[in-house]
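Student: Hello, beginner here. Can you help me understand the protein record under this note? Any guidance would be welcome.
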Amino acid sequence: MVLKTIDNPKISKLTKQTHEVQVPPLCPKTGNPIAGSTLTITYVPKEKLLEVYSLNEYIASFIGSNEVRDLELLTQVVARDCHSTLGVTVSVIGKFILNIGQTVICECKS
C-alpha cells in the first residue's frame, strides 16, 4: 500500500502535524493488538501532509502481513515509509495493547 499526500495549504505556519491512528488487530491467530492500540505519527511538514484516508488504508494493509510480523518492526516500517513519503523527520510512537495483559510502547524516529 502506498501512502498518499496532499499539498500543505500554508495558510499560516504549521509547526507540527500529529496523526493518531487506531491500529486494528493485525495477527489473525492471536487477535493482537486489541482495541485501543494506536500509532501516533508526528512531523513538521514542508510541502506535503499525509492524506488521512490513505494512512488508514496503509495501516490496515498490515493485517495478516507476512513481512511485518512484530509490533516493533511495524513501528519502524511506518516511520521509514512516512519519512520516505514526506521527506522530513518523522516520529512514530506505537502503543499496542495485547490480550495477555501487557502494553508494548515502541518509539522510532526516521
